[in-house]
Amino acid sequence: MTLEGRGIVCDYGPVRALAGVDLRAAGREILAIVGPNGAGKTTLLKVLSGERRPDHGEVTLNGTRVSGSDAAWRARIGLVSHRTGLYEKLTAIENLRFFAALHGLRRNGRKLTATLEAVGAGDLAGRRVETLSRGQRQRVALARSILHDPEILFLDEPFTGLDPEGAAGLEHALTARRHDGAVVVLVTHDLRRGLRLADRVVVLRRGRKVFDGEAAEDGAAEILDHFTAGAEAP
Amino acid sequence: MTELRWTWLIARKDLNLEFRAGGRLLSMIAFVVLAGFLFGFALDKGQVPGRAVVASLTWLTVLFASTAGAGRIFDTEEEDGAFRHVLLTPVSRRAVFLGKTVANLALTWLITALSFIALTSFLGVRTSGSLAAHAAIFLPGTIGLSATATFFGRMSRHSNLGDSLLPVLTFPLLAPLVFFGATASARVFMALPWDEISSLVRLLWAFAIGSVAVGAVLFHHVTDE
Q1: At what angle do helices A109-118 and A92-102 cross, to 10 degrees?
Q2: What's the CA gap between B19 and B28, in Å, rounded?
């Protein structure tokens, strides 16, 4: 399975957020998109997930063009962002039940609890989200994003505000998704975490791709140079 | 069938959140009761009989209260970015619109009933024998009101102007609905025969069906980037 973006251009009025970005993410792979604030990372993720139509360019899955207006495409993807997207007045399991129903899944309480247990949040099932810590909410959000077993998982700054334990749990869940064969696209401004987790790294700066390569140890210095100096892609 | 199920899921979730939040619903109820109370005091019943103005005041109270509520029904969605995740499920934008309209409609019915009771009580207007006729007028009126307010409630959340934009967008569009509704209700209060009211009710139904249809078709324009 290969998710590909070709020549993606996005403008916000007169501001060019993405200026012809190409990238490719394969199954059983974590692709980290890193860059400083305002580099265009979140815009690129929104284009890849179909939330935003690019002004130019296209996104394909295995060579077939995908679109956010296609319900079948939306059924294949999951998203975790720094905003958890949970309803505070509902319990963790009520949130999961609601989103499972929107996906057309008829999940009983036991299956939903099992999904929560898989991300280390089994004991939170009956608690209202408003009573949970940031780390606990993020675990519930992760359970929500994987309950329909998506083939492609998008993560938009998911580590923001997480304590070390919560971050470790999330990292474990991501590597598990990779092991299951999913495409994992991680957007982060935390280069070190991106390098540690990812198989490949794309560095964005001012809407342009300045690096695209393996996240191997010996390439880290080069990536760091691109990240900080903003050199043009070779 | 799926669309109906999605609509029901969205509506049930919104009502559940609304009742659990409590405060917002209570403030709407307080607004309606206080409006009736103040109108009752402000009106010189010796000069203007309550029966002459109760219909207009009820419709305006319902308009203000439900428009404010329609904007707030999207607040819970924006609380922690939940709406983004709803839109990323296979649920259709049409079902999201219809679900939110149904939730708004249920709240608007509550507001309408309370406004009606508060205003007729404070203005000393008797409604004996005409409740069915009033319901037949308010039913299409509140459907049109809820659908329009839901659509523009989302649009105002989508813009930088937020709440301040909602009345600017909705009130001109809802002016005909309020006119038809208030005129029809006034005729019921004056005990005129149904023949003199039915044409207005047909116009209210036309508005209701039109606003639901247009909202369902165009809703994706105010949700998608």
Answers
A1: 110
A2: 12
For A83, how many CA atoms within 13 A lie in the half-sphere containing its CB? 13
H helix intervals, B73-164 = 75-78, 82-87, 93-122, 131-158
The minimal CB distance from A85 to the residues B13, B20, B84 is found for: B84
Who's near A146: CB < 8 A, 6+ residues apart?
A78, A115, A118, A119, A153, A173, A177
Q: What is the pLDDT along chain A (234 residues), one digit of tens a residue?
A: 899 999 999 999 899 999 999 999 999 999 999 888 888 999 999 999 999 999 999 999 999 999 888 899 999 999 998 889 999 999 999 999 999 999 998 777 788 898 898 888 889 999 999 999 988 998 899 999 999 999 999 999 888 877 787 788 888 888 888 898 899 999 988 777 878 889 999 989 899 998 888 877 566 566 666 666 654 444
Indicate which of A66, A89, A147 best probes the interface with B, i.e. most B CBs within 10 Å of its own CB.
A89
Query: How far is residue A32's CA from residue A186's CA, in Å, rounded to a whole number?
Result: 5
Q: How many CB atoms lie within 10 A of CB A83?
A: 18
Q: How far apart are CA B186 and CA A138, in angstroms?
A: 54
CB A126 within 8 A of CB A91: yes
Tokens of A188: 């982060």
Which among A52, A84, A89 has CB closest to B20?
A89
Q: What is the pTM of this model?
A: 0.89
Give the ipTM: 0.89
Distance CA B145, CA B108 (A): 9
In this structure, is the dihedral angle defined by the CA atoms of residues B87, B90, B93 and B95, taken in order, positive or negative? negative
Distance (Å) from the alpha carbon of A83 to chain B's nearest alpha carbon: 5
Q: Does A68 touch chain B (CB under 8 A)?
A: yes
Question: What value does the CA radius of gyration of chain A take, rounded to a whole number of Å?
Answer: 18
- The burial class, CB within 10 Å (0-12 / 13-18 / 19+), for B149 is buried
* pLDDT, tens only, B76-91: 787 788 999 999 999 9
Q: Which amino acid, residue B192?
A: L
**Amino acid type, B28:** M
